[in-house]
Amino acid sequence: MADSNPTPAPKPGPAGRPEPLAFLGDELAALRERNLYRPMRVMSSAQGPIVSVDNARLISLSSNDYLGLTHHPRLREAALNAVRDFGVGSGAVRTIAGTLALHEQLESELAVFKGTEACLTFQSGFTANTGVIPTITGETDLIVSDALNHASIIDGMRLSRAPRVVYPHADVEALRALLQEAATKGRPDGSSPYRLILVVTDGVFSMDGDIAPLPGIVEAAEAFGAAVMVDDAHASGVLGRNGRGSVDHFGLEGRVAIQIGTLSKAVGVLGGYVAGSQDLRDILVQRARPFLFSTSHPPAVAAACLEGIRVMQDEPELIERLWANTRRFKAELTRLGFDTGRSDTPITPVMMGDPATAARFSNRLFAEGIFAQPVVFPTVPMDRSRIRTIVTAAHTDQMLDQALEAFALVGRELGLVRP
Fold first, then answer.
1. Which listed residue (72, 234, 249, 330) is catalytic?
2. What CATH class has 73-314?
3. If exposure means fewest CB atoms within 10 Å of the residue's CB, which of 67, 183, 237, 370 is most exposed?
4. What is the tens place of the pLDDT at every residue in 287-306?
């Protein structure tokens, strides 16, 4: 019997040959039609509160450079000195010939900073999550995840052979119920209890800017013998003493088994890290695939990261300025009538609803000298499109005034705030 839905023949390509990837053009056209296509803006300046984007000078509200460290003189000097002393590349993966004294020193100081036995750096926060989760979990374990966890956590779980369950966002009672069931019933076939139940959550959720209810999560996990893993990418440099993160923020030192952090946001450079026990570090060195099969950080990156951790401790006024700017910006957006969702951190989403409105709003802000990017599906639900803003310690009062004036103007034009 003939197939009633035959696969269409590939469109002709160069010289009349079939083009197997022609369908990609159709998918791109569909994205554009639904206002879901996001062209990349091109910067031609250093990162900072004022940037050059597509040949225009703009106030940036789209950077994760929370503390302004990407252009801090101490980090610049550390990177330049490392290039002079060690060259531009490390030359190998860490387990062959790519471990420099700089890498070991960075990890040692990070462990002290985070209050853990040990630390291991990865090429990014994404590779940290996709390295640690599959390494420590398998088919005899269970992963319990918040519904709004970062894509890197989701991909890390997909790479693991462990079954997983998801609890509604930040719902500690639902988490407790899942843990109770898992601890009571054990594995689905009833053969034995789980070797490990791992509860995974973001510390600060990257799209909504809310802080995880970590005390309740830890208490629920402890009640049922589970371990907790926290991805502190957007809490690093923002929450806790000198930016130590959400575990320090809530006074939960020693009660969270695994802390994932980033060196690419508040630290101002590049990379991620895993902080925890010495055994955790040692097993990751032996088995974590992103670590084993990726060349280590160049000397300049390791040196600048190390200096960034030191600056965060030496200059607490940067975090104080970050939070002063955050409070002011949020309060004024709320006064104007904008919906900033559930954010209680410098990540401040300005809710637009549909993707078309988010795109129009962002483009009009651009014309008014403000760089604030839209976030649309699939990063967020279709009807929860938004302008995702972050103010930093480097923004001046004058910059924030100009940005708020632009938001008010465009908001009135599009009917999103009162006249």
1. 234
2. alpha beta
3. 183
4. 999 999 999 999 999 999 99
